[in-house]
Amino acid sequence: MRYLLSVSLVALAPLFSAAQPITKDDYARAVSFTWENVNNKKAYNLSLIPNWHADSTGFWFTYYDRGEKKYENLTLKPIQRKPLFDHAKLASKLSEALN
Q1: Which residues, 6 or more positions from 47, have their beta carbon under 8 angstroms from its beta carbon?
Q2: How do beta strands 68-75 and 58-65 pair?
Q3: How far apart are CA 70 and CA 61, in angstroms?
Q4: Tens digit of pLDDT for each residue in 5-46?
Q5: CA 85, CA 64: separation in Å to the nearest integer?
Q6: Radius of gyration of the chain (CA)
Q7: Are 8 and 14 in contact (CB under 8 A)?
Q8: pLDDT at residue 15, rounded to an integer
Q9: DSSP state at residue 16
Q10: Angle at 11 between CA 9 and CA 16, to 5 degrees
């Protein structure tokens, strides 16, 4: 008898509870947790996509940091991680070429 009473109370509880209205602030906070707003803006490098070299000696990948996007190269034998290219040198060459 007690079991039946407790099950019926649990089943009927949602009927008597009132939902709170959703405000614009609640909606904005929920939107801030979507993948587009979290990935590489609040949480970095959640997914790494390796781009393998043709000879399988390693791979390069995109690395995100606060306000930066870097391209890194990883070689397997020996294991070394270094920039894929010199970012500052490339930027200066592009500036020269494009005035």
Answers
A1: 39
A2: antiparallel
A3: 8
A4: 777 767 776 666 667 788 899 888 888 888 888 877 788 877
A5: 15
A6: 26
A7: no
A8: 67
A9: H
A10: 75
Q: What is the mean pLDDT of the chain?
A: 85
CA distances 31 to 12, 19, 34, 42, 69, Å, are 32, 20, 5, 13, 24
The one-character DSSP state at 23 is: P
- Residues 72-93 pLDDT 10s: 999 999 999 999 998 889 889 9
| Beta strand segments in the chain, E | 51-52, 58-65, 68-75, 80-83
> Does residue 96 surpass a pLDDT of 90?
yes
Contact 48, 61 (CB under 8 A): yes
Q: What's at 89, amino acid-wise? A: K
